[in-house]
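Re: the multi-chain job from yesterday

Posting the exact lines I submitted so nobody has to dig through the queue logs.
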Amino acid sequence: MKILVCISNVPDTTTKVKFKEGDSLFDDSGVQWIINPWDELALTRAMELKEDAGNSVNEICVIHVGGASADATLRKALAIGADKAVRIDACPADAYHVAGQIAEYLKENPFEIIFSGIESSDYNGSSVGAMIAEFMDYPGISSVTSVNLDDDDIQVNRAIPGGKQVLKTETPFVAVVQKGIAMEPRIPSMRGIMMARKKPLEVKPAAELEVLTESIKFELPQEKGACKMIDSESAEQLVDLLKNEAKVL
Amino acid sequence: MNFEFTEEQLMIRDAARDFAQRELLPGVIERDEKAIYPTEQVKKLGELGFLGMLVGLDYDGGGMDTISYVLAMEEISKIDSSVSVIMSVNNSLVCWGVEKFGTEEQKQKYLKPMARGEKIGAFLLSEPEAGSDATSQRTTAVDMGDHYLLNGTKNWITSGKSASTYIVIAQTHPELKHRGINALIVEADSEGISVGPHENKMGMRASDTHSVMFNNVKVPKENLLGEEGFGFKFAMKSLEGGRIGIASQALGIASGAYELALKYAQERKTFGKEIINHQAIAFKLADMATEIEAARFFCLKAAWLKDQGKPYGHASAMAKLYAAETAMKVTTEAVQIHGGYGYVKEYHVERLMRDAKLTQIYEGTSEIQKIVISRGLVD
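And the result, structure tokens for all chains:
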């Protein structure tokens, strides 16, 4: 059984976000890139499934749609334990475009399980996994918090408001995973880092796919105003400010 | 000349940073305060391969270069130098010596478990009367024909209690002075070995520093490292590499304190503005950043020389001297920038300041480094 883990290459969460070219493009100069945290958890769960001798999982592949700047991120995934990496050499335009590229790869290279993080910490689209399932006509399960394999009996838990839902499914399927799928991401070991250089990182040409949206402009949220300290005995002043300045009362 | 790190080196640095933040930061203050040995943390460090990262892949190590080691040591030392000293001693004193000078049998038996992090090594050179003057070894290893009989006391031994494997420097032929000294691999559970109480230290309180006493301890002849009489030279060569580890540790302590001070200076306000906007504080930070960068270059230069197979003893002494002095200065300034908060434990910088002091003392004091450097000037 083979697992494909979709990897987004996202800016480190401490990145100071800037835009360029009239705020139409993200300025990635000086940005440190990391594996999207939800994808990293997905990879961790995939590793756990492979390490469980009771499972028939024998290969984990990570896939990314993007430029060569993501290669370091893919090498990290290999160092963590993925067996191979594939980069579709395309400039990712939107979720539809990314999902389409991955689906084209899947048509030629079938996998039994496809993991996709529930969202990426940069563009926050939350769509790629579901779109892959639709493109491939596979079952697609969202908000997945656990995947357990017992021969052909596959049990998937998903979070629902206030509880969880337990599902059975068959391969191939797409699991859109969220927090809970694994305890915490793995730190690559020294041996893993050394082995990563010997593992394959294939670069595939992009498929000719339609791009449905065009990004026009980015805006940062408004900066928070300075904090006003009100004396604890001046409740009237606080009420006045909330009413007339903040206009929340 | 290339100032770029490789993808792998950066990955190792990031792995060390993640490990330090995730596994070492929680509880570091309590471990220091109560002098609790970081058992779980060292176990995880070993599982990730940091304890044997410099050992070749053939002997179950990580097969990493020394530049990667500097980067990893810096990141771990930013958070917890009680852990990084265990890593430094195991890697650059004990494993290095066995890999470089040990027999194939010694490597199979002793090096592999240490490289995997399953066993910890300790380096036993210092004695009550032989610290900086390492030639005055009073511990004796008398040649009894089929074994050595070890007697004496070693002081200030990092991992003295937790180590399973000791490298002991002892005098076999006193008449030959330092040419009569041997280096022996000694199993820590051998009959006749006793370990003194945990030293109640000022800094690096969580690492287990002990005296180790030998009373008629039989050491098999096959546990001799190198040739007869090679022990003193072995110790000096081991310390050349060890200094890169401790220099990198001092660098990490300095940069850890600097990062905390920089963050604090951007948040703390006095007289209506953040204190980083007061020139008195800004200039301190500028000096700290500059000296840390210089210390980093010293460490990386020594590491690069070692990786290239070039002589590095002079460079590692300079790195150790400069980084240790920088650590002491920078941590002191970091406490000053924090003001009263810097003097309490929860802000970390007072611990880093206490830890920094030891880097000026162990594995060759700053004064000894100056002897090494000055002698190198006229060689």
